[in-house]
Amino acid sequence: MSKLAVQADGMVITYNKGKSNEFNALNNVNAEIYPREYIILFGPSGCGKSTLLYTILGGVPPERGHMFVQGEDIYAYTPAEMNQYQQSTIGIVYQQFNLISSISVLDNVALPMIFLGIPLKERNQRASELLRRFGIPERLEDKLPTMMSGGQQQRVAVARALINDPNILLADEPVGNLDSISAEHVMDSFQDINEKDRKTVILVTHDAKYLPYAHRVFYMRDGALRRVVMNPEKTQVKHVKPGETIVTEIEQLARLYPYAEPVELKVKSIVNFVTQNFSFSQLEKLEKAILEVIKGSLDDTMLMDFLTRPLQVGGVGMRREDAPEIVKRIFTLVRYSKDVQRFREEVHNDQLFLHQQKFIDRVLDYLAEEVGLKATESQMHVLRTAIAERVGGIINAADFEERLILPTNLGGAAFDERGASMVSRYLEKLIAQGGYVILPNELLGAHT
Ligand code: ADP
Ligand code: MG
Known about the structure:
Helix content: 40-55%
Shape: elongated
Distance between the termini: 7 Å
Structural class: alpha/beta
CATH topology of the largest domain: Rossmann fold
Oligomer: single chain
Number of domains: 2
CATH architecture of the largest domain: 3-Layer(aba) Sandwich
Bound molecules: adenosine-5'-diphosphate, magnesium ion
Order of helices and strands: EEEHEEHEHHHEHEEEHHHHHHHHHH
Mean pLDDT: 88
Radius of gyration: 26 Å
Number of helices: 16
């Protein structure tokens, strides 16, 4: 096993233990972070992001569980070892900068080196270098931090966090107090530290616009790690087996609806599939109904009744002649997506070829029902392979579509663009429903 940067193992954090306001801020959190990864802890206020970050810092002893950093159980450290760890292995940046207002900017940055017994000249030189790197000019070194802008103060804090060259940099809402231009500078400096200095960065935010910075995003809610999503736009540090993860429409929707649960995203995906020209209140009701369908508590007759019932009496108010088609499409999609789910489970268990042919037959049935797919035998052959690879997570949606369009002598299926895009669109819908298996434990357990 490669040495992990951070491994949270069944972490339970309880505040006010034994009092009437006892509160579990972390409920059995398991997480693995690899050296040189950029991880964002994301979720609504109060979900436990800061708590998880401070457990990595060594500041919050767990009620149960262990926190391993670079292979060592940090809560088993002696006080001296913990000190050493916090000075040299970890750096942290806070939302409120936390600079000492009575000493100069240069001294603020150099301060952590004093405790390591490093001579003054060397301290000042290194502090100066770091300040230059993060865009603080020499003339500001002797000033007090409060004489600087928020963005400058935070860049001083970043320099201070790096002064002892820690392997891991933590940041708790580091741009939460900054205007958008300063925020971008600070976020870019974290990216630089991750990419150029190859440091592990673990950053807390509740703002979805920063998610693209991370290799992986840990979505938290109610003290739990709900899911881990890889950023398809970044080359992953963590080794990804082919087929281990699959990027579907759900990940794209997750960017638009960052706080939504996976099942809510599935609902949105279906609603988007079957509706046009619906009003907002109709869409809302439809979402509620589809959630019940996914959960299995609404059958097709009940859905039909709900869709056609007038708005005034609590229905969706859909025209009676439109409803049957929509009900059929929803149930067909949900039914076939179960096959995708089973197939994905087999991929996870390395039983890829066990039922692959049967599975692909079913997908082709679905496409025939939805698109009225017609193809020659040789086109069918290419299509079958492409479906297996797409659902297995080996190629992405764009590759899939391209494969269908490519001429046969280049290994493609020579579909016309319209046909290829229809097939791809329906297949994506299907795997968005069935493909969501990136559950934290499954994903994170892959290497232990
Ligand atoms: P986040 O950073 O996601 O906003 P926190 O980790 O700060 O969340 O807090 C998680 C929960 O624990 C919140 O409900 C918060 O009120 C509670 N909490 C945080 N720190 C303490 C503490 N020192 N004592 C009691 N409750 C706390
Ligand atoms: Mg917080």
